[in-house]
Structure formats: C-alpha cells, structure tokens
Design the sequence.
C-alpha cells in the first residue's frame, strides 16, 4: 500500500556543479536587464531557470507501508453484581460473538481477560487492564463487557493502554442491560457500636433511589425470625429516618432492616441491611482487697485499671486491729478500712470481689463475712488468691466465706515449694477460660515456672489448671446464682515479670475475672454459629455430657431444619455440625436462628462485597466520559445486541450504529520504496514555452 508522506531526492541529468554555474550565469544578465528596465528579460530568465531545475531531476520517493497486527483486549466483568438478572447470559453471548468475529478479521488478536472483583474491594477493571496490557505488542482497542460499575475509574487511560505512537486506543463499552437502570438501597447513617443492656439504641438510616429522583414513598420493615415482617417507619427516599432498637441482652443483637422495593429496580440485594449492636453492661465495679502488700496486687491493679469498662476500688490492709503500735491514730496517714460501707451497704453494687492474700485477723466481723457468702449465692462473683496466709490463723476457709469456696487447704503440709510449670487439665482444654490461652510465646514449649502453691485435701467444682503432679491450681465453681474461683498460688505475678519466658498472665486473669462477671463469650454452655462459603456451621459447648444433640435451624423464611451435632474427638465438651444453606429469594431475609437445649443464637449471611452492593445498576454514566475521550462507543447488549467489529483507517470514526472500530496502524518498510518525477518533462516543456512566449509578447509591446 502506498503512503501519503513522500520525501524529495535529486537525480540530476548533468553534474550538479555545472547546473549551478549555468544558473548563476543566467541570473546575472537577467538581473542586469531588470535593473535597466528591459522588457521580457524576467520571463526568459525564468524559462531558463525552469529548464535547469528540470535538468536537476527532483523526484518524490514513496515508502511502501505495511499494516500492523492488532492486539485488542476483551475484558469481561465477572464481579458479584454480574449475577443479577440476565447479565451473565448477555455477557457470555457477546463474548462468544466477538471471539468469532475476531477470528475472521486478518491481523486481529483478541486477548481475553476475566476480572472477578469483589472480596471487599469492589470492581477494579482498570487495574487488571493496566497489568494485562503490558504483554500486548500492538494495543489497538478495548472491548469492555460490564454493567458499568467500576470502583477505580481513572481520569484517562494509563500509558500501557496507548498505541506505539502514544495515542489513546478506543475503549468500547458493552453494557449488560437494555438501557439505564434504577436501584434502591438502604444504608445506615449512624449506629452506636455499643449499647448498655436495657437501653435503646438510636439508629439513623436513609433510603436512596439511584438512577431516578428521590422523594418517593417507601416503607422500612423488619424481618422477624418467623419469616414475618413488621413496618417500622413510613418515609420518603432521600430523607433520614430515626429508629429505636431495644437491647435486652449482652453480646451481639442482630436486626435486619429492609426497604420496600422500587418498581423496576435492578436488584433487591441492597434493599436490606444488617445492624449489629453489641450489648454491654454498664461500668463493671470490682472490689480488690489485698491482705498484705505483695507483687500480685500490682498485677491485679494494672490489669483492672487498664480496662476502661471497669471501676476499681482497691484497699490494702497495712495494719490489723491487733497490731501493737503506739502511734496515735490521728498521726497515721492511712484511710480507715470502710468495712461497714463496703461489706454491708454497697456490697451488692459490686460485680466482682477479689480477696488477694487476705487473712481475716479480726478485720471483718462474722456478719460481714456472711454477707460475702450471701453476695455470691445471690449472683455475685468472688475470686480468692491464696498464699501462705491460707494456712495461718484466721484463714477465710474457717469463716462463713468457706461455705462457698471450692477447695479446702489442710492445716499441715499444705505449702508446696518447688519449681513447677502450670498445666491445663483435660477439662481446662475445653473450658472457655483456659481453652484459648496462647501456648506459644517467649516461654517456648511450656509456660514459665511458679515456685509456691497450696495443696488441697478437698475440692469441688472444676479444676482448670494443675501442677504436673495433678495438684489443683485453679478451681472454679458455681454457688447458687453466683460464681467463685480459687487460685491456689500467689506466684502468677512471675509471669508478668517474664520468669523463664513468663506466661499468658494478663489473658488468663482477664478471662477469669470476666467469667466471674458472667460475660456471655465465656459461658460454659454456649451455642455458636457462623456462615462461610454458603455453609452454616453450628458449635455447641457443654461441660456436662449431652446425648443425641440436634440443633433446630430456623431460616429467614421461618422454615425449620434439624441439624445433628457430633462430638469433637479433639475437644471434650464440644459438639458441631454443618449444612449447606439453600438459596433464598433476595427479599426473604438474611438472619438465621439456631436453637438447641434452651440456648439460641442468630447469625447473618456475610456481606462479602459491601462496596459492590452500594449501587447495583447497569449504567453508562460512570464510564461515559472516559469512553468519549478515547473515541470509543457505548452499546447496550440487551437492546442492540453485540456490535460488529470493523477495522478502520486512521483518522476515521471509530464507532457507529451497530459497529465498533479498531484503527489500522501502518508502518513504512525500510528496504522498499518507489519514486516519481517531481516535475515531469512534458509539464516542464509546456511551462518553458509559455514563459518564453510571455517574454516575447512583453518585449514586443
């Protein structure tokens, strides 16, 4: 093919020096005649110079051009939003037809690129295209098959999506719909992360109509576990709404809100939202009484003061009533121990009482000690940390408090003083307090050692930690409505100092104290559920033997399904089972309710693509500016079908009704060209004769 960018070369019939000499000789008389005013000299001089120019033989060279191969990207959006309606079908049909056309066009290669999207990052088509274009030799165009929703649209195509000359290649947008769509979404504007139990959470939500004007009437409904719905509010799209949600229990409260459908909207997938409210108790009050100053008191104080949800009241008993000291009481800079206020008036206001190294020594009258035992039986929590004082006169186990303690210390040979590493018992491997304690850390293969512990001659309840010889170290029990624990060593502070690597001291004490305060996540009898990859897994924890365990699964539509649970071979007291969840209509609901043995829990379908679900329309509005700047076209697959691919010359339109163009780029062949005379001989002869004639005519006047 002959190009349009010639160049000039010279192929003179006479030596170039001779032609230049003759031209100079000709010019001198001509200039002299012009100066003297001679008529016709100028025309005759021009005729002679034209003849010399023809003898110089200027020629035009035309390089032979070669059409370059074409590499086009066929990008297919496979993000979660493409599963809506018939988008997948339209996209796959267009892919197949474009590939067939590409095979019939000479020099064109279509490179397929599937972009999955989702995974919390939305649809990111241009990142994938930018990476894929690096492997193209001659990028010439892009066919983008999508719904038009991309979450990383650049202002212009990156340099990798330009041709060899730096020109932007056309981006053709093929949309999986018949035309612009509408969508309705429900979004949460404000929701508190934590709500005190018994109070009401104030939720602020708004319904948005996308692709159409706001202001249309809409209802906000609540899905109930039985499959029914309640209308919570009547409002209009685009207007915020305040909703009140009561929180009645600790832990997570799930609430599903749904906006009534918009006629003709693309999908109902984002008409619903799940609100997760964490129910917490009001500030937890802890009373810590240290019998004598010790290293463990600092550990407890540091742990409890670091928890913003805990109000700590701490007293250390420095002087007992029978201490012999002649110092007047008025001169002592000590706060009197408010026994009556703490153990009579306000004892029931505490969620947990910790007695660390406490020996009564006539500090508390028996009526106050009876109050402590009664406090436990009525629902309070008590932790006793024992050391050598448990073998001395005035030990707690010889007071009314002893009736609620889960272990008894003998009077003789009760103190063991030798290095040992605490171990979890078989029950401790399953109990929530000690099950998840870290096994690996600075301590290596086992926790750091303690050097002192108490022997017991009687225990009841559950032993979670023990010495290597089996002597109990941590014993838990429930008395009445309350809970009590005994730590039979005052050496746990060694772990905080990193003795031979230390141990999980902070986590153990945190779990222990929160179990005593009845935190739901540490309950011994639990029912948990989770949904992953379309499967519901139910886990039942019980420290008492269960037989024929079966959970009742209640779907969002109210349908009941039994699920047998099997005991775990690796963990005592653990039963589990799983099932594949059925595919339900979009508007049915997202919360599943699980019941077993008087326990119940709820779990919701995870929103794996929150960014993707913000707008589910098929629309050209987001990509149209970029398509226009590239010279490409926009095609609706559901209305006009798949466009025809055309190879068009550079500079021509790149799209039209029913067709999308790819520009043909041409490059010259370095070894092949043709040449033609710039001034053909016959034209030169005619011009010379004409000039001579004009000169003769001018001279004769």
Sequence:
């Amino acid at each position: 093919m002959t190009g349009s960018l010639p160049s000039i070369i010279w192929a003179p019939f006479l030596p170039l020096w001779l032609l230049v000499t003759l031209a100079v000789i000709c010019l001198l008389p001509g200039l002299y005649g012009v100066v003297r005013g001679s008529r016709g000299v100028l025309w005759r001089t021009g005729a002679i110079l034209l003849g010399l120019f023809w003898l110089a033989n200027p020629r035009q060279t035309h390089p032979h051009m070669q059409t370059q191969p074409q590499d086009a990207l066929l990008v297919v959006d496979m993000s979660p939003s493409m599963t809506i309606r018939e988008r997948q079908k339209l996209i796959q049909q267009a892919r197949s037809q474009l590939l067939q056309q590409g095979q019939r066009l000479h020099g064109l290669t279509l490179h397929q690129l599937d972009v999955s999207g989702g995974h919390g990052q939305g649809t990111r088509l241009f990142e994938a295209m930018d990476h894929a274009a690096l492997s193209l030799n001659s990028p010439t165009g892009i066919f983008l098959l999508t719904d038009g929703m991309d979450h990383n649209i650049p202002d212009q195509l990156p340099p990798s999506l330009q041709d060899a000359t730096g020109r932007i290649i056309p981006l053709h947008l093929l949309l999986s719909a018949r035309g612009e769509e509408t969508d309705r979404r429900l979004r949460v504007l404000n929701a508190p992360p934590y709500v005190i139990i018994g109070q009401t959470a104030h939720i602020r939500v708004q319904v948005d109509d996308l692709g159409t004007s706001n202001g249309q009437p809409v209802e906000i409904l609540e899905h109930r576990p039985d499959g029914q719905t309640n209308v919570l509010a009547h409002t209009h799209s685009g207007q915020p709404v305040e909703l009140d949600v009561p929180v009645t229990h600790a832990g997570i409260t799930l609430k599903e809100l749904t906006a009534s459908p918009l006629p003709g909207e693309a999908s109902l997938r984002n008409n619903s939202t799940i609100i997760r409210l964490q129910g917490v108790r009001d500030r937890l009050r802890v009373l810590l009484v240290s019998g004598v100053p010790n290293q463990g008191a600092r550990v407890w104080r540091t742990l409890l003061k670091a928890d913003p949800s805990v109000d700590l009241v701490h007293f250390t008993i420095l002087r007992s009533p029978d201490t012999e000291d002649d110092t007047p009481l008025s001169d002592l800079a000590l706060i009197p121990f408010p026994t009556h206020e703490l153990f009579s008036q306000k004892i029931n206001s505490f969620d947990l009482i910790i007695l660390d190294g406490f020996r009564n020594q006539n500090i508390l009258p028996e009526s106050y000690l009876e109050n402590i035992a009664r406090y436990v039986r009525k629902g309070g929590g008590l932790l006793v940390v024992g050391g050598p004082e448990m073998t001395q006169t005035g030990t707690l186990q010889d007071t009314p408090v002893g009736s609620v303690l889960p272990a008894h210390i003998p009077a003789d040979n009760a103190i063991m003083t030798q290095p040992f590493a605490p171990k979890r018992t078989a029950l401790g491997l399953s109990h929530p307090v000690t099950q998840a304690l870290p096994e690996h850390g600075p301590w290596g293969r086992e926790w750091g050692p303690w050097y002192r512990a108490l022997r017991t001659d009687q225990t009841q309840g559950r032993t979670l930690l023990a010495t290597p010889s089996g002597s109990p170290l941590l014993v838990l029990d429930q008395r009445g409505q309350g809970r009590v624990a005994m730590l039979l060593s005052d050496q746990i502070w060694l772990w905080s100092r990193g003795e031979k690597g230390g141990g999980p001291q902070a986590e153990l004490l945190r779990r222990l104290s929160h179990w005593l305060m009845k935190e739901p996540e540490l309950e011994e009898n639990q029912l948990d559920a989770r949904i992953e990859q379309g499967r519901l897994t139910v886990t039942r924890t019980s420290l008492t033997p269960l037989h024929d365990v079966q959970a009742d699964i209640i779907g969002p539509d109210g349908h009941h399904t039994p699920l047998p649970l099997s005991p775990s071979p690796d963990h005592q007291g653990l039963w589990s089972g799983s099932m594949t969840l059925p595919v339900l209509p979009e508007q049915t609901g997202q919360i599943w309710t699980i019941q077993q043995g008087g326990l119940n829990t709820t779990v919701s379908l995870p929103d794996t693509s929150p960014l993707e679900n913000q707008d589910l329309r098929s629309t050209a509005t987001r990509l149209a500016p970029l398509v226009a700047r590239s010279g490409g076209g926009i095609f609706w697959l559901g209305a006009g079908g798949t466009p025809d691919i055309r190879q068009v010359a550079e500079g021509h339109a790149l799209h039209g009704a029913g067709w999308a163009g790819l520009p043909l780029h041409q490059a010259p062949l370095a070894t092949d060209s043709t040449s033609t005379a710039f001034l053909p001989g016959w034209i030169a002869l005619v011009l010379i004769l004409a000039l001579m004639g004009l000169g003769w005519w001018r001279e004769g006047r």
Summary: The chain has five domains: 7-65+671-699, 69-180+618-664, 183-281, 284-321+332-516, 522-604.
